[in-house]
Amino acid sequence: MGQRRRRFSPEFKDEAVKLVESGVSVAEAARQLGLIEQTLRNWVEAHRKKNPKTVVPLSVDERARLRELERENHELRMKNEFLGKAAAFFARDYR
Q1: What is the DSSP string of 20-73?
Q2: Which of 39, 55, 84, 87 has the fewest CB atoms within 10 Å around its CB?
Q3: Within 10 A of 20 (CB to CB), how many other CB atoms are there?
Q4: What percent of the chain has pLDDT over 70?
Q5: 55: pLDDT confidence band, cut at 50, 70 and 90?
Q6: pLDDT score recorded for residue 95
Q7: CB 43 within 8 A of CB 62
Q8: Which DSSP category does 51 fall into?
Q9: Could you tell me the fold of the domain covering 10-50?
């Protein structure tokens, strides 16, 4: 016969979720509480769906900085791609 299904009180679930949200990994919290990791993950996910965090919109300065960083990131990716092609070209000629 299979094992009986364990039941947990809403208070226990809330405390387990608070433990994860305080910075403890799901795996570590599950070990500490004697739970299966996936069970705790399900509780955390359900809690986050029920209580979404409000996202604070970016200020004008933050948006400008973000655009600047995105532009810089694009330039660096292009340079990296070029250098990779150049290295392949010169490596081919070296042989």
Answers
A1: HHTT--HHHHHHHHT--HHHHHHHHHHHHHHSPPPPPPPPHHHHHHHHHHHHHH
A2: 55
A3: 19
A4: 95
A5: confident
A6: 60
A7: no
A8: S
A9: Arc Repressor Mutant, subunit A (1.10.10)
